[in-house]
Design goal:
Layout (H helix, E strand, L loop, with lengths): L16 E4 L3 E5 L5 E9 L14 H17 L7 E6 L11 E8 L23 E3 H9 L60 H4 L46 E2 L2 E2 L8 H6 L1 H4 L13 E3 L5 E4 L2 E6 L11 E7 L4 E6 L4 E6 L7 E6 L5 E6 L4 E4 L5 E5 L7 E7 L10 E2 H5 L4 H8 L16 E2 L23 E2 L7 E3 L2 E6 L16 E7 L4 E2 L5 E2 L5 E7 L1 E7 L5 E7 L2 E5 L4 E2 L1 E3 L5 E7 L7 E2 H6 L3 H8 L3 H6 L7 E2 L3
Antiparallel strand pairs: 1-2, 2-3, 3-5, 4-5, 4-6, 7-8, 9-31, 10-11, 11-12, 12-19, 13-18, 13-20, 13-21, 14-17, 14-19, 15-16, 15-18, 17-22, 23-24, 24-25, 25-34, 26-33, 26-36, 27-35, 28-31, 28-34, 29-30, 29-32, 29-33
């Protein structure tokens, strides 16, 4: 068996020792990832951080003390320190070693280790490095330190392989990262060993050079840009845990502190970027997430309905939604709304159809059976009905979207509610009927009620005025999705499908999007919609969205199946798949025409010198920008 190199640490073996006592030895990392990078190890062989048990907490605390002692001797401020362990299989040597680092990090392209794909569902991403404080807390609580599945297996755009490099990915020093601290090297480092075993710091640790200001590429003919602010951080900001984390804490690097009070663990598990937000988040953005699971559910005989509007999601001023379930044969009674209504999804792809009927202001009728993945749309004031067929024994379930955020499902104009409040003699006069003819109308609204399932091939009654010229339904399920490098998309609006007569929809456009694991919707950074709000509903998988609201305000939200998202007009955003399965969701816009601005395309079509002056991009990076609009970008 090959001997452990860390069990034979000595100056003769080539180690530059900076601290030593009876229990520990500290030496310089041979390939430092930071301004100062030191390894602290116990002389007793311990395989890795995964080997630590509850009784080892004192040992780990002592290792941290050694690290602080060394950095104290270098006058490194506490706010510029990072200490932690690599978690197997992403450790280089199977002997417990604590990385002690003084920021800033070196450029990530000069990373310490080459990158491999990882093992099983894991890749080098976030979950392979643990802060020393987190390690102490875990083992004190009796937990074995382990790897999280990395929720984004790919890399960020224009940083190929950077997110997988073996440099601890912390965002804790965003405002310090690009500032070279003044580290004064003492005459000798503090050591428990004779001075001869600890070389003078000046011969071991070199002082960093002052950071230089960003400059425009030398190949450009444009005037050089003058930097007035530091570079933005390139440290990854992955979610801090997955849905299986049993003890989520509001800690990201050195920021935050453990919870002391009670915690709703399931909610914290689902929202890592709210409890421990990325360091790129800043300021305030209104809540852009609402789970239907938190909506009050109205239960009826034959089905149920729950809604989202400004009462629970104030940011969504332009659109509201209803999630409705009908058992086979059940009817959502004849009704109409002040707003338009779009059915944007039958929830189950393989089950359930809904039969719809309507009559327009010219007396023309319409009937259609709408299957899984298809749409319907009713303009404001058009009376209509919904009834589940028995194509599936379970009936149907669907999402309705309305073009007014203040809409309430309970304020719908219902046939039975209306007639129960009209004097009986007026009803008789209107219909020229006897008193007995309307003697069994309900005394109050029915809303949802059971009935006999209609035949799927039913047709509308004969109408002397004819049928509506533009159908109220659209077979989106029969439209082939546009395949893209990172997923697929279907878009429906009044311009895309003119030939198929979807022009009846003048206030709603829709897109159905799939995003493969590791991919990002709409560029790698942001995109925005110049004239429309975006309402979204997540059907499968899990993802996250950062909403940029200008003036330094940005916030990240996590989404799972059943969640609603909302992005106001012109606010920059992206949708990223953070799971290990396909992310599938709907985008709904209160407009007749789908529009978006691609960041990638915008920069590609802007004069290169102008972009370079803003972002200090290289000519190679500028040349790689896409002049055509990407929709879903694959991960690397």
């Amino acid at each position: 068996m090959k001997p452990c190199p860390f069990c034979e640490v000595s100056t003769k073996a080539g180690f530059q020792i900076v601290y030593e006592d009876e229990v520990f030895v500290a030496f310089l990392d041979r390939k430092p990832a930071a301004e100062h990078h030191i390894q602290v190890i116990p002389k007793r062989h311990i395989a890795s951080v995964k080997s630590l048990r509850k009784e080892d907490a004192t040992l780990v605390r002592s290792m941290k003390t050694v690290g602080d002692t060394v950095l104290d001797g270098l006058d490194v401020p506490p706010t510029m320190r990072v200490m932690g362990f690599h978690i197997p299989p992403f450790n280089s040597i199977n002997h417990l070693h604590l990385h002690v680092q003084a920021l800033p990090y070196k450029p990530m392209r000069h990373a310490k280790y080459p990158v491999s794909a990882g093992f099983g569902p894991f890749q080098k991403g976030f979950g392979w490095f643990i802060q020393v404080e987190q390690a102490i807390r875990s083992i004190e609580n009796g937990r074995t330190i382990r790897i999280f599945p990395s929720r984004v297996a790919g890399t960020s755009c224009n940083q190929k392989n950077d997110s997988n490099l073996d440099t601890p990915n912390h965002e804790l020093y965003l405002k310090f990262k690009n500032r070279s601290p003044i580290l004064r090297a003492p005459n000798a480092l503090v050591s428990g060993a004779p001075a001869s075993s600890a070389p003078a710091a000046s011969s071991v640790l070199s002082s960093p050079a002052a950071s230089s200001a960003p400059r425009a590429s030398s190949t450009s003919s444009a005037a050089e840009a003058t930097a007035t602010v530091p570079y933005a951080s390139t440290d990854p900001n992955y979610p801090m845990w997955g849905s299986d984390e049993t003890d989520p804490e509001p800690i990201r690097g050195s920021y935050g502190a453990p919870l002391m009070g009670p915690s709703n663990i399931p909610v914290a598990q689902q929202n890592p970027d709210l409890l421990a937000p990325p360091t790129s988040d800043h300021g305030s953005v209104s809540n852009a997430k609402w789970p239907f699971a938190l909506s009050h559910n109205r239960l009826q005989t034959g089905g149920w309905a729950r809604q989202q509007n400004i009462g629970v999601m104030p940011i969504a001023t332009s659109m509201a939604s209803v999630n409705m379930r009908l058992e086979a044969g059940a009817i959502r009674e004849l009704h109409w709304h002040k707003t338009s209504e779009a059915m944007v999804r039958n929830i189950h792809d393989s089950q359930g159809s809904t039969q719809i009927t309507a009559v327009d202001a010219d007396g023309r009728n319409f009937l259609a059976t709408v299957g899984p993945g298809d749409l319907w749309f009713f303009p404001p004031g058009i009376p209509h009905s919904l009834q589940a067929t028995n194509d599936s024994t379970e009936g149907s379930e669907f999402i309705l979207v309305f073009d007014d955020g203040a809409f309430s499902e309970d304020s719908t104009f219902l046939l039975t509610d209306w007639l129960s409040h009209v004097p009986a003699e007026v009803i008789q006069k209107n219909f020229k009927a006897s008193a007995d003819a309307f003697s069994h109308i309900p005394a109050q609204e029915l809303y949802i009620f059971p009935s006999t399932p209609p035949p799927s091939d039913a047709v509308a009654p004969t109408d002397p005025q004819g049928t509506v010229p533009d159908p109220y339904s659209f077979a989106l399920s029969k439209v082939n999705a546009t395949k893209l490098s990172g997923g697929s998309v279907k878009i429906v609006d009044s311009t895309t499908f003119k030939a198929i007569l979807w022009q009846v929809s003048t206030t709603i456009a829709a897109a159905e999007v799939t995003v493969d694991p590791g991919a990002i919707r709409y560029d790698c950074i942001i995109q925005w919609h110049p004239t429309m709000d975006e309402w979204s509903f997540f059907l499968e998988g899990q993802g996250r969205v950062t909403v940029f609201a200008s003036q330094g305000n940005a916030r990240t939200f996590n989404y799972q199946a059943g969640d609603i998202g909302f992005v106001p007009t012109a606010m920059g955003h992206y949708v990223e798949n953070t799971g290990n399965t396909t992310l599938k969701y709907l985008e709904i816009f209160n407009t007749d025409r789908f529009q978006d601005i691609s960041l990638n395309q915008w920069l590609a079509l802007t004069p290169p010198d102008l972009v370079k002056a803003h972002l200090d991009l290289s000519d190679e990076t500028l040349a790689s920008l896409s002049k055509t609009k990407p929709v879903v970008m694959g991960g690397n």
